[in-house]
Structures are given as structure tokens and as C-alpha cells.
């Protein structure tokens, strides 16, 4: 089939990295003709806007709704945002009209890609599909309520135009069923991992730790967005104050950027953690696995919120792929993701329980070894060369 995916992010975003790029790559390996039309967080500074990789044609056509430079995430003035949104919608539609497709798959029900796909499909008469990998109206940060209302409108109404829907959590599936969408046309596929990204680093843990200068430490890693709107990094910092009182050799690596990057540095200073928390900042996707392999434990801190119930954390499946035990809160599908082992689930929003689980792993070599072995075995369920066969069922169910 000729499949065009319309994405409002880059392939280096969490969704692009943990879902759309590896999915499209595997679809191409299965013999499909796959195109990705995407937006970029720093479009004006992008040197290569069109390329073919592993058989997938990728076109960056415009600016994303936020701007990202290194570890900083910047938001546009509302008037500028309106112009950027209109221009991006037009460019997505223009490119979609010039690429013959049997299927248009909307990656996230955002206004830009949704409008572009709907208008293109009115001309092309192809099949329209939708992927919901987040609770968009809840998980995103909005400068005004009008933005939230627009996103909620598309998120609630777009499913009625789709031949089928893919989701990554039970929460999103149940929400769609409550909205009246037929269950038989919804396919649940969690986020996963590109096997090749992690395979090349297996067996190099000690050399990576030496390279990073952390061989003498017990290393706790958080890999993800530094955005307090929907990521409980402050909960992790609170837990780490407890950890530091019991194990002074422990260090916390915060790998990633976001709008609260500077704010969290201030929080660390106020908590007296400046010497034990290292802000790594944004790093290229190909380097990210190094930090999982270097860590003794990774953490997905979570509170019981709607946004967290709807999320399928990439950091959990990536940690499993590295054979690194992971600690997370019992929210949404997290217990299910770790049902094959490889981590510890704790009550959400509880810094004491989070600290206790992290300490148990970094201080008990036998526990850490057992969880690490479980993680490597469990990771087989979350590689995209396996998950792609579940994903294509949404097309098979409606053809």
C-alpha cells in the first residue's frame, strides 16, 4: 500500500522516535510505499528538509507549533502561532496532494495535520486513519484557553472521519469507546523501540560509564522532557533528596530539554542537590541509549493524572531495551508494560516510595542483576519489528 503519515513533530521528538519513525521503517521493510510529511521545531535552521532513509521518504515542510533550540523549548506569540499554524497546514496539504496515497494516517489529532489530511482526502478519496498516542487537550501546555478548546475539538471530532484508529494505551481505547467509536476498528499498539538503536551498544556499559566519568557512582537516569506541565521531574528531585541522605555516592542524570530546564536547575539548588544532579540537556537520539546503558536504574516518575493515564512512556521500553531496571508509578498502562519484569512499580506521586525502590536497586546487586535480565527478555515484546504486525491490523480490519 501507499501510506502517507502526517506528523506535526520531528522524527527526533518522543513520538517520532518511539513510534512514527520506527513504525514507518518497519512498514517499508514489509514492502509498503511509505512517506512521512512532518514539521520541525527549528525549521529555519534545518539544512536537509527532504531525504530517503531505509526506503521511507521524509519531507519536513514547515515550522512546528513550538520552537526548540538545544535544551530550550520556546513558545510563539498567539498571533505568530496562528500564522505558523495556517502556513504549516497549507504546506502539509500541498505536499499530500502531490503524493499519491492509498492511506493517509494522521499522527496525533492536531489541527494542522488533521485539516490537511481531511482536505486532501476530499480530493484524493483515499482511506483516512488516525493515531492517538496522547490525551492532547490535557497533556499539552497552552498559552490560552482558546488553544485548548481548538485542540479538544479536533481530538473529540476527528475519530468520526477515520476508517480506523490506532492507540498506544488502554485509557485512550476506552475513551474512544465511550465516545461511541466501534471497538473493532480500534487497534492498541504500545510505543516501542527500534532494535538497531540499542543493539550496537550492548556489552559496552563499563566503557560508556568511564567515558562519562561516572564509574565510581551509583547512577540514576531520567531520560525525557523537562516540562513540569506533564512530567513529574519535581517528584523525582524530591525523592532524590531522600536518596542522597542514605547514599551519597548516588548521582542523578537528567537527560533532555524543555521549557522548565532553567527552573529545575533552581529547584535543585534550593534542595541542595546541585552537586549530585547533572543536567545533560538535549542530546541527539543516537546518543540517548548510552545513558540508559550507563545507568544502574532509570526512573519514570508519575502522578495519577489524566495525562499520565493516557501516556505510554517511551523511557520504560527504552530502559528495558538497554537491560536497565526501571522504576515507575502505578498509573495507566505502566504495570502492564512491566508485567514481564524488568522494574518496580510504586504508588504514584509518592516520593518516599519512589526513593525506596530506587535505593533497593542501586544497593542490592543481586536484585539489580535479576531485574536487568528480566528487562532484556521483556524488551522483545516492544521492538517495532514485532509491533508493526499488530499495527497493520487496523488496515486489515477495514479493507
Summarize this structure as a short list of keywords or feature phrases.
399 residues; alpha/beta; Rossmann fold; 2 domains; 8-stranded mixed sheet; 44% helix; 20% strand
Strand order of the largest sheet: 3-4-2-1-7-8-9-10
Low-confidence segments, given as residue ranges, are none
Structural class: alpha/beta
Report helical residue fraction.
Answer: 40-55%
Q: The CATH topology of the largest domain is what?
A: Rossmann fold
Sheet-strand content, in percent, reads 15-25%
Distance between the termini: 11 Å
Mean pLDDT: 92
Number-wise, the strands total 16
For the record, the CATH class of the largest domain is: Alpha Beta
Shape: globular
Description of the structure:
The chain is an alpha/beta fold. The chain has two domains: 2-192 and 383-396, Glycogen Phosphorylase B (Rossmann fold), CATH 3.40.50.2000; 195-382, 3-Layer(aba) Sandwich (Rossmann fold), CATH 3.40.50. It has 18 helices and 16 strands. It has helices at 14-29, 78-97, 111-124, 136-139, 145-157, 170-178, 195-199, 205-212, 233-246, 261-270, 288-294, 306-310, 314-321, 334-337, 351-363, 365-378, 384-391, 393-396; strands at 2-7, 33-40, 50-53, 56-63, 66-69, 72-75, 103-107, 127-132, 164-167, 186-188, 218-223, 250-255, 277-281, 297-300, 326-329, 343-346. Strands 3-4-2-1-7-8-9-10 form an eight-stranded mixed sheet, sandwiched between helices. Strand 12, helix 10 and strand 13 form a beta-alpha-beta unit. Helix 2 (78-97) packs parallel to helix 3 and helix 8 (205-212) packs across helix 11 (288-294). The longest helix is centred in the N-terminal third of the chain and has 20 residues, at 78-97. The protein starts with a strand and ends with a helix.
Amino acid at each position: 500500500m501507499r501510506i502517507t503519515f502526517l506528523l506535526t513533530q520531528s522524527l527526533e521528538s518522543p513520538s517520532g522516535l518511539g513510534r512514527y519513525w520506527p513504525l514507518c521503517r518497519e512498514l517499508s521493510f514489509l514492502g509498503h510505499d511509505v512517506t512521512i510529511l512532518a514539521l520541525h521545531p527549528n525549521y529555519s535552521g534545518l539544512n536537509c528538509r527532504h531525504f530517503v532513509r531505509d526506503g521511507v521518504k521524509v519531507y519536513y515542510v514547515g515550522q512546528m507549533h513550538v520552537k526548540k533550540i538545544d535544551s530550550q523549548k520556546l513558545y510563539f506569540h498567539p498571533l505568530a502561532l496562528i500564522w505558523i499554524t495556517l502556513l504549516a497546514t497549507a504546506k502539509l496539504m500541498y505536499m499530500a496532494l502531490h503524493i499519491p496515497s492509498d492511506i493517509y494516517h494522521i499522527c496525533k489529532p492536531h489541527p494542522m495535520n488533521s485539516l490537511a489530511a481531511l482536505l486532501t482526502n476530499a480530493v484524493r478519496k483515499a482511506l483516512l486513519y488516525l493515531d492517538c498516542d496522547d490525551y492532547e487537550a490535557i497533556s499539552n501546555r497552552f498559552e490560552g484557553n482558546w488553544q485548548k478548546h481548538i485542540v479538544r475539538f479536533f481530538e473529540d471530532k476527528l475519530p468520526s472521519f477515520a476508517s480506523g484508529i490506532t492507540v498506544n494505551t488502554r485509557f485512550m481505547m476506552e475513551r474512544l469507546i465511550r465516545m461511541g467509536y466501534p471497538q473493532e476498528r480500534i487497534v492498541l499498539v504500545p510505543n516501542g523501540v527500534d532494535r538497531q538503536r540499542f543493539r550496537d551498544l550492548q556489552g559496552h556499559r563499563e566503557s560508556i560509564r568511564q567515558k562519562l566519568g561516572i564509574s565510581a557512582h551509583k547512577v540514576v537516569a531520567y531520560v525525557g522532557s523537562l516540562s513540569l506541565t506533564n512530567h513529574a521531574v519535581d517528584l523525582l528531585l524530591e525523592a532524590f533528596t531522600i536518596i542522597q541522605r542514605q547514599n551519597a555516592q548516588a548521582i542523578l542524570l537528567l537527560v533532555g530539554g524543555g521549557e522548565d530546564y532553567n527552573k529545575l536547575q533552581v529547584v535543585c539548588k534550593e534542595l541542595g542537590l546541585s552537586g549530585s544532579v547533572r543536567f545533560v540537556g538535549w542530546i541527539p537520539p543516537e546518543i540517548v541509549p548510552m545513558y540508559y546503558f550507563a545507568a544502574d536504574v532509570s526512573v519514570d516518575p508519575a502522578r495519577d493524572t489524566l495525562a499520565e493515564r493516557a501516556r505510554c512512556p517511551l523511557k520504560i521500553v527504552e530502559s528495558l531495551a538497554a537491560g536497565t531496571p526501571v522504576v515507575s508509578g502505578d498509573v495507566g498502562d505502566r504495570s502492564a508494560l512491566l508485567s514481564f519484569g524488568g522494574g518496580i512499580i510504586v504508588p504514584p506521586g509518592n516520593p518516599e516510595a519512589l526513593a525506596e525502590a530506587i535505593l533497593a536497586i542501586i544497593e542490592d546487586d543481586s536484585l539489580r542483576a535479576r531485574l536487568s535480565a528480566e528487562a532484556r527478555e521483556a524488551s522483545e515484546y516492544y521492538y517495532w519489528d514485532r509491533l508493526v504486525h499488530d499495527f497493520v491490523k487496523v488496515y486489515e480490519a477495514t479493507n
